[in-house]
Amino acid sequence: MEILDILIIGAGPIGLNCALEAKKNNLNYLIIEKGTIVNSLYNYPLYMKFFSTADKLEIAEIPFISAAPKPGRQEALEYYQGIARQKNININLYEKVLKVSKTGKIFEIETSKLKYTAKNVIISTGFYDIPNLMNIPGENLEKVKHYYTEPYPYAKQKIVVIGSSNSSVDAALETYRKGAEVTMIIRNSEISNNVKYWVKPDIENRIAEGSIKAHFNTELIEIKEKTVIFKDKEGEIQEIENDFVLAMTGYLPDFDFLKNSGIDLQGECLNPVYNPETMETNIENLYLAGVVCGGKDTHLWFIENSRIHAEMIVKNILSK
Fold this sequence. Notes:
Layout (H helix, E strand, L loop, with lengths): L2 E7 L3 H12 L4 E4 L6 H4 L30 H14 L4 E2 L4 E7 L2 E6 L3 E9 L6 E2 L12 E2 L12 E5 L3 H12 L3 E5 L14 H10 L3 E3 L3 E5 L3 E5 L5 E5 L2 E4 L3 E2 L2 H6 L4 E2 L4 E2 L13 E3 L14 H4 L1 H12 L1
Parallel strand pairs: 1-2, 1-6, 2-3, 6-19, 8-15, 9-10, 9-15, 10-11
Antiparallel strand pairs: 4-5, 5-6, 7-16, 12-13, 13-14, 17-18
Helix pairs in contact: 1-8
């Protein structure tokens, strides 16, 4: 069996960047991806606009040309998938990595299709696959959606949106403008300051004028077939009619996979242990790259500030 220099888990922007860096340094590499190229971006809302400008989303110094100041999902898909085609990156798609183990100095990687061996492994799996569950009664009902793609299915429906992050605000505004009756359930006392600066005034004005209802300092406690029950800021229990719940409560890395790979997780946020200068974990020659490095704090790393991980990792591999 061929022993790879590097096996990369995940074909997101940072995984692709790691592959390009390996290729530049003549290392034998392979990406294993459970979905399509930049699978998380593919599953983003159809009309999503990035907070970052195009230049901050670039990898490997390949220009990202965008007509708009803030590129959208489709432009990003064209950019990253175009790089994968043009650079002929070695990727196996629709193949899920099940297990990473180490015997001596060689990693054995078992997937849904094959087994591989590699001297080094980079985990760049992001965090978009596992919803951050509320763990309340009724969360498993079909009307509850942890992923939002477009507003059209929710026209003329009573929608409850959970949270006040960018994804929550986008879902609330888009469904409202397609004819939904929107109510936001928000734990905090105001809309998050992390919301895109050109969108925040829009949602605040819609709430102020009453077009979108918002209950601040409240908590959803149960979801029923035709209603939802929540505790308001006075501690009173309220029940309102409801057709769909858009639970935009965030997402988490696959902590079980990290733990089973031998990576130590620390603290309440389950932060994976790694050397910030090399991105090497507590397992020698096993590296982390991208958003997965932040544990539960998924707002810590982005494409623009984790692009450097690829160069750091490959530099460390070459130094050994």
